[in-house]
Amino acid sequence: MQLEYKKNLAVSEIKKFCELKSAQEKNLEDFVIALLQENQQFNFIGKSTILDIWERHILDSAQLMRFIPNKNAKFADFGAGAGFPGMVLSILGLREIHLVEKAFRKADFLRKAKLFSPNRVFIHQTKLEEMPAVEFDCIVSRALAPLPGLLTYSKKFLKKGGYCLFLKGKNLPQEIIEAQKNFQFEYELQPSLTSAESNIIKVSNIKSEAKC
């Protein structure tokens, strides 16, 4: 009952910024059920976050929809893990997303989970360093690496005029300072809906490494 109550709270929040259809809500529910079943064996998400999965993982991922003006663009989720945020965003309407995850077990789960989305989902089980050069309109990521590392990866795969959306925690101010030592980029910060200590950073116009 507690999980159902928290699901309803999260769904209510999602409906404030996303036109959530009943089929999409059902797909999110099925995705959560499948993940919790798999989690008993492989521990994809921390056991301390299971009761809060709808806020800590689903809503946290879904909030990126507030900053995506075109669902028909070509998206990528770097370090997709068990599908956060990429799988959630696909269920909510992104027409094409590429989920990049190096771990076999997580990638295998994503291949099953993609059935919960009617949109195009491509699974790349590979390290980003070994992934062939493909260009994306938007790159999203959550808990993969500090900002300097994310910019290193994104610079290779982001289309000209594209942008990145990264879910970041309380260390973000220092990460921005570190990233500015090696990169030139524009950024905007938006507060997270799920944590007072977290932000969403939108990055664009990533230039070549700054010269000293």
Q: What descriptive keywords fit this protein?
A:
single chain; alpha/beta; Rossmann fold; seven-stranded mixed beta sheet; 7 helices; 38% helix
Describe this structure in words.
By secondary structure, this protein is an alpha/beta fold. It has a single domain (2-204), classed as Rossmann fold (3-Layer(aba) Sandwich). 38% of the residues lie in helices and 21% in strands. It has helices spanning 2-14, 22-42, 53-62, 86-91, 104-113, 147-157, 172-180, and strands at residues 74-78, 96-100, 120-124, 136-142, 158-168, 186-191, 199-204. Helix 4 links the parallel strand 1 and strand 2. The longest helix has 21 residues, at 22-42.
Structural class: alpha/beta
Assign the CATH topology: Rossmann fold
The number of distinct helices, counting runs of at least 4 residues, comes to 7
Give the SSE order as H and E letters.
HHHEHEHEEHEHEE
Low-confidence stretches: none
Strand order of the largest sheet: 3-2-1-4-5-7-6
CATH C-level class is: Alpha Beta
Question: How many domains, in number, for the residues?
Answer: 1
Strand fraction equals: 15-25%
Distance between the termini: 58 Å
The CATH architecture assignment turns out to be 3-Layer(aba) Sandwich
Q: Count of DSSP E strands?
A: 7
CATH homologous superfamily grouping: Vaccinia Virus protein VP39
* CA-based shape: globular
* Overall pLDDT: 95
Q: What characterizes the major β-sheet?
A: 7 strands, mixed
- Rg, Cα atoms, Å: 17 Å
**Residues in helices, as a percent range:** 25-40%
